[in-house]
Specification:
13% helix, 34% strand, single chain, twelve-stranded mixed sheet, globular, mainly beta
Length: 277
């Protein structure tokens, strides 16, 4: 199944995509369904009811307000090599602020205090039920689904300190979408992952190049942090980020970034000035 969060007639709620590409309305926010363990049952029931043309709806981030957003650094061998970093012996985990999450079509804001804004195509995990001390072998049971992500990174702020959070957690710097695909629909260990800026390809790899797989990531995090329904985990980016190029290449106002992962869809976001007060 493919679940979406959408806005229609001023109300935002969850839906499931039908075979014709329209939306079957679940009537409530996706976190409510995840908290109650009713996502799949709700989707199956909704498919028997009326639908909304997708052209009449605004597609939002699959989980608009996650409780936690975590990420894995240097999790593709080619990216570690291009960054001149050793291959990690354990997953490198950092946080992104929930306010970084936006959906397809939403602007990525160019911050007022930096122009070193970089792209990172990523596979994202959305947790489906509370997870603590989960083994890698059992991890799929705790996953609601997968989606496309872009771990937008402000490179100079990222390296102000040994911890990366300030460079990774700016508002709007975590687009995800366009929908949440359940684990039964994809071979998550073998998905092409690509990114373009203004139509020029910058990244092209495959999730089979992950250093730490999905199960290992969930096992490692849940050993110390309880994962809750709706939590989002960015799993790392492959080679091709702008900050490692010579000279570096960074996003600028007016750019459009598109990330595609086979079977999960396409996520496109414009870069605009930050007009926040």
């Amino acid at each position: 199944m493919r679940f979406v969060t959408f806005t229609h007639n001023g109300k935002t709620r969850a839906g499931v995509l039908t075979g014709s590409g329209d939306i079957a309305d679940l009537g409530v926010p996706i976190l409510e369904l995840l908290d109650n363990g009713g996502l799949i049952a709700g989707g199956q029931q909704a498919l028997t009811g009326p639908t909304i043309p997708i052209a009449e709806a605004t597609i939002e981030a699959p989980v608009p307000n996650p409780r936690k957003v975590l990420a894995v650094g240097l999790n593709y061998r080619d990216h570690a090599e291009e960054a001149s970093q050793p291959i990690p012996q354990r997953p490198i985990i950092f946080s992104k602020a929930p306010g970084c999450i936006v959906g397809p079509g939403h602007a990525i804001y160019m911050p007022r205090h930096s122009v070193a804004v970089d792209w990172e195509a990523e596979l994202c995990i959305v947790i489906g039920k509370k997870a603590r001390y989960v083994s890698a072998a059992d991890a799929e049971q705790y996953i609601a689904g997968y989606c496309v992500g872009n771990d937008v990174s402000v490179r100079d702020w990222q390296f102000h300190a040994p911890t990366w959070i300030m460079g990774k957690a700016f508002d709007t710097h975590g687009p995800i979408g366009p929908w949440l695909v359940t684990p039964d629909e994809v071979d998550v260990g073998n998905l092409a992952i690509q990114l373009w800026v203004n139509g020029e390809q910058k990244q092209s790899s495959n999730t089979n190049q992950l250093i730490f797989g999905i199960g290992e990531i969930i096992e490692y995090i849940s050993s110390g942090i309880t994962l809750d329904p709706g939590d989002v985990i960015f799993t790392g980016t492959p080679a091709g980020v702008g900050g490692t190029k010579r000279p570096p290449e960074f996003l600028k106002i007016g750019d459009t970034v598109r990330v595609e992962i086979a079977g999960l869809g396409s996520l496109e976001n414009p870069v605009t000035a930050d007009m926040s007060s």
